[in-house]
Design brief:
alpha+beta; 434 Repressor (Amino-terminal Domain); 3-stranded mixed β-sheet; rod-shaped
């Protein structure tokens, strides 16, 4: 009986020691896990937050700092650090420090950056990865309401180093000035933009010697609304004009008003030719109302000669060129 008793006692003591070791290992593992979790969440095992881990969120994922966002936005807009520095009027080293979080942009620069990239200051300053959902929804609603807002962004500014006539050979940017200029506001020999000024200009608002645009002003103007020495458009006004609605010294159009007019409805101070003609000399197909001469249909050679005599005696000499154009339409 003594031997079995000691054998049982030996096995019982061994099991107790094994259980105690397992318990100690479990406590050590739990302590290690808690220490690691504390480091991930707080930045150190004792609960203090270090500067290097301030951008770690509770999920262990690093938030985007202001520098990260500046770098991401710049790359998305296809700018180099040199190009961005030139736009903001700072050095490339300053941009590099901003993106590395070694320095912080001035308030004025932050506002300029937010306008350039089309983002809010809150997004740049807050340590989060993306704009919050509510902000995105509000922005989407504003975009939906702005159905008639035209937004044009030039992702890169390009300027030639070669100078011609005191201007860069070409300039592409928001405010472009060069021999060949392309931008929201373009000025040059050849200008293309929302607002264009040049010898040859093309734009929403166009001004130049030869201009093409929605609203066009120039010596030779072509557009929806055209005003110039010679103008052509849906609505045109000029010395010589042609359009659906035309006003000028010599005008041609569906509705033509001027000193000499040719059109479906022609109203002329001195002469009018059209389906419905009204003037001092009126020659119409359906209606003709003239103070000195009126005729429906084609003129005979004798009537043509009479009309020419009336024009010579009534029209001032400085309008001789317009009288000649009108007489060429008589027959």
């Amino acid at each position: 009986m003594t031997v079995p008793f000691f054998v049982c006692l030996f096995f019982w003591e061994t099991k107790l020691q094994t259980a105690e070791k397992a318990h100690n290992q479990a406590n050590a593992t739990c302590s290690l896990h808690l220490e690691i979790a504390g480091w991930l969440y707080y930045g150190s095992s004792d609960g203090t937050i270090s500067a290097a881990e301030r951008s770690i969120n509770y999920r262990g994922v690093r938030n985007m700092t202001t520098g990260d966002k500046l770098a991401k936005l710049r790359k998305n807009a296809n700018y180099t650090q040199e190009q961005l520095a030139e736009i903001l009027g700072v050095s490339r080293q300053a941009v590099s420090k901003w993106e590395s979080d070694l320095a912080f942009p001035e308030t004025e620069k932050l506002i300029r950056i937010s306008e350039l990239y089309g983002c809010s200051l809150d997004y740049l300053l807050k340590e989060n990865s993306e704009p919050d959902a509510e902000t995105s929804k509000v922005q989407q609603k504003e975009d939906d309401r702005s159905l008639f807002t035209l937004r044009v962004r030039f992702p890169q500014e390009r300027k030639s180093d070669r100078i011609l006539w005191g201007m860069p050979l070409y300039h592409i940017g928001k405010n472009a000035h060069g021999v060949f200029a392309v931008g929201l506001n373009a000025k040059g020999i050849v200008a293309l933009g929302m607002k264009a000024r040049g010898v040859v200009s093309v734009g929403l608002l166009s001004m130049g010697v030869i201009s093409f645009g929605t609203l066009s002003l120039g010596l030779l103007a072509f557009g929806v609304f055209a005003l110039g020495l010679a103008a052509a458009g849906a609505i045109a006004a000029g010395i010589i004009s042609a359009g659906a609605i035309s006003v000028g010294v010599f005008s041609v159009g569906a509705i033509a008003v001027g000193d000499f007019s040719v059109g479906a409805l022609a109203v002329g101070k001195y002469g009018a030719i059209g389906d419905n003609a009204r003037g001092m000399i009126a020659i119409g197909d359906s209606e003709a109302h003239g103070t000195l001469f009126e005729k429906l249909g084609e003129l005979t050679p004798r009537e043509t000669e009479r009309v020419s005599e009336l024009l010579r005696s009534s029209v001032p000499g400085w309008l001789g060129w317009a009288r000649s154009l009108f007489e060429s339409r008589l027959g």
